Structure prediction request, 148 residues.
Amino acid sequence: MEFVQRGDFNYYEKLKACYAESEWPDVLEGLLFVLEKNHQEYTYTSILMEEERHRELLEYCRGNVDKVAQFASFLVNDFKEEVQELYEQSILKEAERSKNRSNYRQVCRSIRDYKSIFGKKSVQVLVERLKKKYTRRPAFIDELGKVS
Prediction:
């Protein structure tokens, strides 16, 4: 278990194979607790995905909005509205931090990824919202015009 706790997901399947099916749920709970407490995010989220613990992964994304894009396609079928809201928050946060055209292009890449999951109509609303908020950033407005 020590290897998994150190963040090496490769040992997860080997660890799981060491326990009887009836023992695994208790072991898993303890493991997830330790990983979350020790901030082993990669291993923690990988196990949540492997075990299909969607609700817990959504909770993780609520606390780490910047990570929602990474897990959106995995969660969208079960939690479409929540994932969409978190994804929009992530994009808005990214836009707020943006200061130059390179950053604006990255925001637009995020919007295109968002579009692939939530569709053109959602993107149009989000883009209009950003254009209204950032009227004094002509380079950003220009980049946003290339998204729709």
Remarks:
- The mean pLDDT is 93.
- The chain has ten helices and no strands.
